[in-house]
Amino acid sequence: MLNYDLAVIGGGPAGMAAALEAKENGVEKIIILERAATLGGILEQCIHAGFGLHYFKEELSGPEYAYRFIEKVKATDIDVKVDTMVLTIEEGNKITATNNVDGLIEISAKAIVLAMGCRERPRGAINIAGSRCSGIMTAGTAQKYVNIDGYMPGHKIVILGSGDIGLIMARRMSLEGAKVQMVCELQPYSNGLTRNIVQCLDDMGIPLKLSCTVVATHGKERLEGVTIADVDEKLCPIPGTERFVECDTLLLSIGLIPENELTRMAGIDLDRVTNGAVVDEYRQTSKEGVFACGNVLQVHDLVDYVTIESKLAGKGAAKYIKGESEKGEYIETQGINGVRYIVPQKINSKTDDDVNLYFRVGSVYKGAKIVVTCGDKVILSKKRPRMCPSEMETVTIKKDVIESIPAGEKLTVRVEE
Amino acid sequence: MQFDVAIIGAGVSGALTARELSRYNMQVALIEKGSDVAVGSTKANSAIVHAGFDAENGTLKAKLNVEGTALMPQVCKELNVPYKNIGSLVVAYSEKEMQTVQTLYERGVNNGVPDMRVIDKAELKELEPMISDLAVGALWAPSAGIVCPYELTIAAAVNAAENGVGFFRNCEVKGIEDDGEYFTLDTAQGEIKAKYVINAAGVYSDTVARMIGDDSFNIIPRKGEYYLLDKSECSKVKHTVFVCPTEMGKGILLSPTVDGNVLAGPTSIDIEEKDDVDTTAAGLKLVSDNAPKSIPTINLRNSITSFTGIRAHTDRKDNDFVIGQSEKNARFINVAGIESPGLSSAPAIGKYVADIVLSLFPCEKKADFNPERPAPVRFREMSTEERKALIEKDKRYGRIICRCETVTEGEIIDAIQGPVGAIDMDGVKRRTRAGMGRCQSGFCGSKVVEILARELGKNVNDITKYGGESKIIYERTK
Ligand SMILES: Cc1cc2nc3c(=O)[nH]c(=O)nc-3n(C[C@H](O)[C@H](O)[C@H](O)COP(=O)(O)OP(=O)(O)OC[C@H]3O[C@@H](n4cnc5c(N)ncnc54)[C@H](O)[C@@H]3O)c2cc1C
User: Fold this and answer.
1) Which residue among A14, A89, A225, A263 is buried most deeply as judged by most CB within 10 Å?
2) pLDDT digit string, tens, across residues B355-369
């Protein structure tokens, strides 16, 4: 049994930032466990630019962003085990992991940070009819084939989903010589950043079909084409609008799901909307001493925000390990009226800092207000020119406001049009 | 190449027949046109070991179902295949349907099904707590079970191969000549000669029968579509839950699988093309509309995949299995029309067909027949201590390739290197479950491709999903 103060599961930007922050806050023995061959997580395959604008105030590629953290980790005495898969988390913060060098590893830690990231929703999640031939994969899988392994997964491509990964891959595949036929988006708006639509589609001459989806795949062995159709306001395919598009590859970019198998195994409460753990302002979960941050907690838009969140978790873990955690009552947060969820789901009334609430809205709003209330009292009201589901919103609640909230009250956030 | 017996088709029928024949001193070939065993009806079905009350009294279907189901636990034990004797329920939602339940009960008794009972609402609720409140009673058949159909077939083929059966894959039989003593099969891999031929070609068994001029039956392919639900749904379904059968068929069932997922389906639609395994929007909608009728809390949105199976339905009036010597040629044995309960019946079909062969071609038993297929390593089912010991022996069992199903590199190598080993992605998936979980190979796909290429000495761009043109990747990037 190896003993550590802090075990961090996942060596992507979230895990590294949490480990580094804990180190800076005086935690001694820290280990990062990563299942891939290197630290860096999904950033390693994101070779395009656009990372770090908020956090480093300069534009980096994914690997460059990760590299800055990897170098920092190397400069500390934080232990790192790569190619190592965590199998279980048991009572008393006991972890078992495995790799092909050490074999089975058992670790006991005072605190744990969960930073396992997220995975892409596969085809089964939306059940497109048709054949099970080859040539249908998630955009991230294709990205790995092209950017890490150096193989072309196809030549003639249709992309379903206009999230950023889908857009980036449209450009990437075109640059590698593939013909990207179109990007289809179920919603009447794109889920990607505007700059990506311009740079990845418009500049490459790739059409974006809004309110359009893939209803069937065709091909006995390799994919030969897809049937697309327009959808109505309820997002249902409109009969009669079906048309065939030739392609040998269908890339799916249809959403991300936090990878919370271990979290569930550890008996930690999950939020039904985020699919991540229920946490407090330092990202501590329902299990004392277990923290969660990054995309395993909620799917973020930008890695910069992952870093910010993970530092909170690292700091919280350090406070916990040193026995300095606040011991107050919890105030619950609640999103209503267009606000789908809020992270953190609860705030310690004796918190030592201002708290940012992160949330997403359910549809597109123009010129609407975000209103935070506690009972009948309006705590904050802010006008936003535009809000949409693909962009995470945030408001800051001051420490003195939190302290003034009576026990048992809720903080409610809503959209007011 | 010359054999005593050639079996055409390596589905569950062909594989279990091969295993039965491998007990005897005869040369047997198992010939499959696909890139693996279990790629026809056997790949995609309800995976239920039926109790045996569906088939009409006195039919071969009824006899072989009840016998096969009784043999299944022992066969699965010898072959180290997971089998669970969970029992099945036919649920009635009205007094009229209770009459159907009663009819099924009586038919079951006549077929020799053991221990069935007609139960009331209270007992039903106890057995299946999440069942709809509209249910009024059910037929409880405790002898029913579940099994993994492709694992059973792979294990039977491996065991047969270890007992001397020759396995030929990517080997479609295109024509058959007979000189009175030997048949000459014209295959994708050249000529194969055999004294006796067993036609276990599934939906193509009519095509194969035509090769010797036997046109006594036609196969009408009948589609069945399913949803496979995430393991998070498995606490909601304890037994196989049928609705009452109607003229339209057995209806949409819900059943746990041996791997802890839940199956919802199948539909039942006659189709034109025998290899049309496309799912359809209409079919899937039928499943998702009907599945919650039995268990209202079932959440079809937790599906991880959907798929289609093809039943080999015959146009014969009696609706029975077509098993026996062809009227056109006594050395040619049909094993055709093996639709449900073909999986349940398979152990009995194997024995029944072996008896026919032995009656024509008497043979001694082999002294060294080994009925056991060693259990493959299953890292995910091991205790911490077992895992430690395993990795100590071979470090490759310490490297997890498939995260969702916890499959190690060692297990994947075993699946490729063993007898009747995997040569493509689907082959690895069916043997190890790598790629069968929530992410459906999103993460591990590229690693499995690499391991396949390395172990088989091939280029990564020659690795396919299931043979033919089902390539995964093309050339190197620039
Ligand atoms: C939707 C559905 C649900 C079912 N549910 C159940 C159930 O719950 N319980 C149950 O007991 N049964 C069930 N069944 C029935 C069961 O799946 C079948 O009875 C069984 O799998 C048939 O096996 P087989 O070996 O006869 O045919 P197949 O599995 O179809 O095998 C035939 C093989 O022959 C090969 N072949 C064909 N032509 C040639 C050729 N010319 N040369 C070489 N090879 C050839 C094919 O590639 C194939 O691999 C179900 C079937 C379906 C479709």
Assistant:
1) A14
2) 999 999 999 999 999
Determine how many CB atoms are found less than 10 A away from the CB of residue A52. Answer: 20
The domains of chain B, with CATH numbers, are 2-42+149-218+317-360 (3.50.50.60), 83-146+221-314 (3.30.9.10), 379-462 (1.10.10.1100)
The tokens 């059968």 sit on which residue? B245
H-helix or E-strand containing B313? strand B303-314
Give the confidence band of A284 by pLDDT, cuts at 50, 70, 90.
very high
Cα dihedral angle (A240, A242, A243, A244), rounded to 10 degrees? -140
With vertex at residue B45, the alpha carbon angle to CA B142 and CA B68, rounded to the nearest 5 degrees, is 45
- pLDDT at position A375 over 90: no
Chain B interface includes A384 (CB < 8 A): no
Q: How far is the CA of B441 from the centre of ligand 1 (A)?
A: 25
DSSP B65: H
The distance of A293 to chain B (nearest Cα, Å) reads 20
Please state, in angstroms and rounded to a whole number, the distance separating the CA atoms of residues B14 and B345.
12
Task: Give me the mean pLDDT over the A216-240 stretch.
Answer: 96
* Beta strand ranges found along B315-448 (DSSP E): 322-325, 332-336, 400-402, 407-408
Active site residue B313: no
Under a CB-based contact definition with an 8 Å cutoff, are residues B305 and B275 in contact?
Answer: no
Cβ A1 vs Cβ A106: under 8 Å: yes
Confidence of residue B24 (pLDDT cuts 50, 70, 90): very high
Which candidate, A307, A391, A332, places its Cα nearest to that of A21?
A307
Nearest to A141 among B284, B400, B445 (CB): B445
Tokens 């249709």 belong to which residue?
A158
Q: DSSP strand E in A161-207: where?
A: 179-185
pLDDT at B248: 67
Amino acid symbol at B364: E
- Find the A288 Cα to ligand 1 centroid distance in Å: 53
Measured distance CA(A29)–CA(A31) in Å, rounded: 7
A127 contacts B303? CB cut-off 8 A: yes
CB within 8 Å of B79: residues ≥ 6 apart: B152, B155, B156, B159, B372, B373
**Ligand 1 pocket member B452 (CB < 6 A):** no
The SS3 assignment for A192 reads coil
Cβ within 8 Å of A, B 311-340: none
**CA B117 to CA B125: how far, in whole Å?**
15
Token reading at B254: 């819900």
- For residue A222, the 8-state DSSP code is B
SS3 sequence, B48-69? EECCCCCCCCCCHHHHHHHHHH
For residue range A155-199, list pLDDT tens digits in order: 999 999 998 899 999 999 999 999 999 999 999 988 888 889 999
**Separation between Cα atoms, residue A27 and residue A19, nearest integer Å:** 9
The shortest C-alpha distance from A152 to chain B (Å) reads: 5
Q: How confident is the model at residue A328 (pLDDT cuts 50, 70, 90)?
A: confident
Distant-in-sequence, close-in-space partners of B313: CB < 8 Å, separation ≥ 6: B219, B220, B221, B222, B270, B337, B339
Q: Set out the domains of chain A in order of their start, with CATH numbers.
A: 1-120+256-325 (3.50.50.60), 122-254 (3.50.50.60), 329-417 (2.60.40)
pTM summary value: 0.92
Interatomic CA distance for residues B6 and B4, integer angstroms? 7
Report chain B residues whose CB lies below 8 A from the CB of A96.
384
C-alpha–C-alpha distance, residues A257 and B231, integer Å: 16
Q: A217 is written with which tokens?
A: 């795949």
